[in-house]
Amino acid sequence: MIQDALFLARMDLRLMFRSWATWLWAFAMPVLFFYFIGTVTGGARRQPARESVAVLVPADAGFLAGQLVRRLEQRDYHVIRAQSEEELSRHRRRLRLPAGFTDSVLAGRQVAIKLERDGGGLDADYDQVRINRAVYTVLADLIALSRRSGAPTTESFEELAREPRNLTLAVESAGVRITPPSGFQQSVPGNLVMFIMLVMFTSGSVTLTLERNQGILRRLASSPIARLGVVAGKWGARMALGMVQIAFAMLAGTVLFRVDWGRHPAIILAVLASYAALAAAAGMLLGNFSRTEGQAIGFGVVASNVLAALGGCWWPIEITPGWAQKLALLLPTGWTMDALHRLMSFGAAPSAVVPHLVTLSVLTLAAAWLLARRFRFQ
Question: How many helices (H) and strands (E) does the chain have?
């Protein structure tokens, strides 16, 4: 029976690869979706650029201007020293220091530092807070130095910065922060999961329906091949196609889109293989009970897209409401995407996806048992 199943799997796989639809939907369209959706939702992971603030420093501003610039950089600003009003006006955030800045401060005269910014809202408020912190930190250092003998200088500021602090703030994380993946890190695995199901639910089911309507399966029934051998051979061809899809998508994701598959690629491959096995069996069930090719294609397209959307293939399920996240865990697409996110983006150990693997395998065995009992040759 094993030889018969392998023979059928090889012949079926060869026929599927002769169809242009297989090449289009299994290999070409996924790459286009990887690129399009990944680009729209953020592209590759990039470090955010530092925000810039342009500072107009008069020639007689003194050493306190340098201290203020240093504090602004500590607030994670990229400080641009503007040389003229014209250059200053070209920037979104503009900070003007008055003439004689250091002399006025040391003399105890009130000094106004003017901030101008294009746009408003919360971002503008946040800029105001950060720049105020930089200004008040310089002022606090100046007060501390005023209690010492001698006039404040650049060297005394540096000496103060090297001194140990009597008061320190210890900050610890209360837990692991889960940041949903975006860009290619979401689109590549998500669309891979969707297209595996789409191909199995359309090409995988349609070929079975065609063979039944054309009498090919009736001729197989009259051959010495057992029913279980026929089912195993048909499933094997679809499973092999799914594994080729997975290998191609992982290679394309790594080379073209720089996807990070995490520390456990072998476990990721096991998750995807378990999912492909279930999708292949489910596609055969669809083909087994469909009477026409139109039924198989129509139901396959609708079902695969609905399951992809609800399972988190189109967007990270972590950004959806709680009820949607619970619903996703009732679907095979949701189990697979949850396992992939755990392994690829959340740093989970392989043991965290054992329930996912067991559930997918049990459902595959259940579908295979039903196929072996109810497979229709005509």
Answer: 16, 4
